[in-house]
Amino acid sequence: MIEPVYSPSPDRYEAMEYRRSGRSGIRIPALALGLWHNFGSHKPFQDVKAMAHYAFDKGVCHFDLANNYGPEYGTAEENFGRLMEISFRPYRDELLISTKAGWDMWPGPYGNWGSRKYLMASLDQSLRRMRLDYVDVFYSHRFDPETPLEETMQALVDIVRQGKALYVGLSRYPAEKAREAYRYLAEHDVPCLLYQDRYNIIDRAPECSGLIDLGEEMGTGFISFSPLQQGLLTNRYLNGVPADSRMAKGVTLREELLTPTMMKALRGLNELALKRGQSLAQMALAWLLKDNRVTSVIIGASSVPQIEDNLKALENTKFSPEELALIEELSAPVQLKKLPR
Ligand code: NDP
Fold first, then answer.
1. Which of 4, 25, 251, 263 has the most CB atoms in a 10 Å sphere around its CB?
2. Which residue has the CA at smallest separation from atom 13 of ligand 1?
3. Quick check: CB of 285 below 6 Å from ligand 1?
4. pLDDT value of position 2
5. Is residue 207 part of a domain?
6. Domain residues for 81?
7. 231 lines ligand 1 (CB under 6 A)
């Protein structure tokens, strides 16, 4: 059967909010789609396609990838490359596509961390998999304590000079190293577009480390990953662990997290969300977006209805002081203040 050619919804930019990233010329949709878990080789391509098309139809024009997303490293990028071929190519200039290198990707000393050799080779591989000439944002995916910061940053600068990325970003850097990196990049005329870290109602690490304030000071946008704490801040685990859930797979989200204290916090937050007329997922996303310093949040999703649910967060991102105080009270016993680095 010949598939009909994809044609995106003509009103795709109407309901989405676009926020300026730091002091740059770029605006980013308040909700972006991340391809860490549900877009690799284990997922039927039809589902990958349905989620990506649905998102773009709703104005989600930022897709966040990394070299090792899948699972099966590289396969999320390969699937994204297929999407470029079959549907997204005519819309390339409407898309903000990011990828990263910094975690383990291939064996041996050159497939991990922050060397110039790894970053340069990895981006070339990512571009081939995604069938792109350039990415919009290339990230150093984590701070490498053993590679001179200047080497990693100069690799980012040179990648931009080579035209393989338009902007650069950092993820999971200690605050003092992020400050040094921002300075280096600015002095070399490649200001850092985005800083990416985990931030949500439960995980307050970037608030506590000052990374959000630092971004504001240095003119770098802040983009939150795992805004739903991988699904914990949704109704997914309120009544056990569904067989098709990320927690049931037991790789990056473990069942041990569901302690009585956690369940009490989640149930309390869920009740508050319902009173606000939102799902818990919507309230968790809205809680992040209430802060103008948060440029965007990168949602993961395993189905179109989850994306649909999450997009409705934009309908109400205002909180009363009493609601905010209650969120603090309910989440305090389970809050994380530091990221394991
Ligand atoms: P989330 O916190 O949004 O978790 C996504 C999971 O939550 C989904 O897979 C789904 O779980 C569940 N979910 C999502 N929406 C709903 C809903 N409405 N109702 C019920 N359950 C829902 O984000 P991720 O942890 O996936 O991270 C998002 C993105 O952030 C990644 O794809 C990646 O791009 C980026 N990231 C960056 C990192 C970095 O180091 N820079 C690290 C990690 C992520 P289920 O699968 O069980 O259905």
1. 263
2. 231
3. no
4. 67
5. yes
6. 18-237+281-316
7. yes
